[in-house]
């Protein structure tokens, strides 16, 4: 069939290709390697939440839910923000249910940015940030977080702002580094937002995965930030149902309403029965959240020990599903080549962190492994990786 001579993909999306997560999961499927690449658990979340989803399907919750999300889920999200973070929200107008955090991020950038606006974010950055900033016609201004501690460099942060800055897009706990931004760092960011009249959009999907007694501080809880912050999270990570794609955005009415305007033309709505199940999940007792966190912390320790034994330099994460390693002690320099060869060499798939950097020199030797897997899978992967040392 004849096609136009013009390239089909718009210039805004040129270079975005296939996401590294899809590429690496396909590599795992093709080679039969253990997939420690894409971040998804290999077990289901709580049985009672599964049952709630089945019950919701049987009860006939199978048509379009209301645009902002079903009332019980919006109430559950507001109650969750109060219980864990002391944030008060009106479920009618300050809470929007989305198709995962992914849609909330996309809708926020499309709704809030004019073409030419600038978005300050931190690298390594989650891959959809760059793509959605580009879709919005905005420009990213990136502040590099450098290993081993990934601390914010105050001068680099200040230099990223300009009169065109519309918003700061901040992810804490941070994928892929596992960094949890400190209160002092968040205060630094907040100071710029307040002083320059800039909005903040925060991605807090790993809010319950913070280890070693550290605290997760939502940016919206800092002085003067509630009125200028859109807080995004999702059920995928917290309840181990990444395929359900129930997410949310919360914050001041005007911001939430703007995001809803964009969101309604992306998916309109989604996941009716799963919305009911997640409304139930958000009401689980504190003990659930606590044992989920300690369970993942133990998995972190398990995989970190295996990666150290394999001779990798381990950058121990403070939160999330992921640990980053530096491959240079193995005599390797290029994380992408290392990851492409890893299924053959060791029967394991990991993610080259360089794809999340504009400054590729910083990210080149870094490789991310996911530890949200069964202990026996982690052990098997570690045993295979131990062979790399030879
Ligand atoms: N942000 C970050 C930092 C993530 O790691 C992910 C993947 N869970 C998402 C957003 C997307 O979340 P969801 O699956 O809820 O769309
Ligand atoms: N958030 C997951 C990760 O970082 C992947 C989600 C996706 O594939 N988009 O691995």
Describe the structure.
By secondary structure, the protein is an alpha/beta fold. Helices cover 41% and strands 15% of the residues. The chain contains 14 helices and 13 strands. Strands 2-8-7-6-5-3-4 form a seven-stranded mixed sheet, sandwiched between helices. Strands 9-10-13-12 form a four-stranded antiparallel sheet. A two-stranded parallel ribbon has the order 1-11. Helix 7 links the parallel strand 5 and strand 6 (199-203). The longest helix is centred in the C-terminal third of the chain and has 24 residues, at 286-309. The radius of gyration is 21 Å and the shape is globular. The model has no long low-confidence stretch (mean pLDDT 97). Bound molecules: 4'-deoxy-4'-aminopyridoxal-5'-phosphate (PMP) and glutamine. Glutamine binds next to loops. Residues 19, 21, 38-39, 175 line the site of glutamine (GLN).
């Amino acid at each position: 069939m004849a096609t136009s001579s013009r390239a089909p993909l718009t210039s805004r999306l040129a270079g975005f290709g296939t996401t590294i997560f899809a590429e690496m999961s396909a590599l795992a499927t093709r080679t039969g390697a253990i997939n420690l690449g894409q971040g998804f658990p290999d077990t289901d979340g709580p049985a009672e939440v599964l049952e709630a989803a089945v019950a919701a399907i049987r009860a006939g919750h199978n048509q379009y839910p209301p645009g902002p999300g079903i009332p019980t889920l919006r109430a559950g999200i507001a109650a969750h923000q109060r219980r864990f973070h002391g944030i008060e929200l009106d479920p009618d107008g300050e809470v929007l249910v989305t198709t995962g955090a992914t849609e909330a991020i996309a809708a926020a950038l499309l709704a809030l940015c004019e073409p030419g606006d600038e978005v300050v974010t931190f690298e390594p950055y989650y891959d959809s940030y760059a793509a959605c900033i580009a879709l919005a016609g905005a420009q990213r201004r990136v502040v590099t977080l450098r290993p081993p501690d990934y601390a914010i460099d105050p001068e680099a942060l200040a230099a990223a702002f300009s009169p065109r800055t519309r918003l700061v897009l901040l992810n804490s706990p941070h994928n892929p580094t596992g960094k949890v931004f400190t209160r002092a760092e968040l205060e630094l960011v907040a100071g710029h937002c307040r002083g320059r009249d800039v909005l903040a959009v925060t991605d807090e999907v790993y809010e319950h995965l913070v280890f070693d007694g550290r605290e997760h501080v939502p940016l919206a809880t800092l002085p003067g930030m509630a009125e200028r912050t859109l807080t995004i999270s999702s059920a995928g990570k917290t309840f181990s149902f990444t395929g359900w794609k129930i997410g949310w955005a919360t914050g001041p009415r005007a911001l939430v309403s703007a995001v809803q305007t964009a969101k309604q033309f992306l998916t309109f709505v989604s996941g009716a029965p799963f919305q009911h199940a997640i409304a139930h999940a958000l009401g689980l007792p504190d003990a659930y959240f606590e044992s989920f966190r300690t369970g993942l912390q133990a998995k972190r320790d398990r995989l970190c020990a295996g990666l150290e034994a394999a001779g990798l330099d381990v950058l121990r994460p403070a939160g999330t599903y992921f640990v980053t390693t530096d491959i240079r002690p193995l005599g390797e320099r290029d994380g992408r080549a290392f990851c492409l060869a890893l299924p053959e060499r060791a029967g394991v798939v990991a993610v080259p962190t360089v794809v999340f950097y504009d400054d590729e020199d910083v990210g080149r030797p870094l490789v991310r492994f996911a530890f949200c897997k069964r202990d026996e899978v982690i052990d098997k992967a570690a045993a295979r990786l131990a062979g790399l040392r030879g």
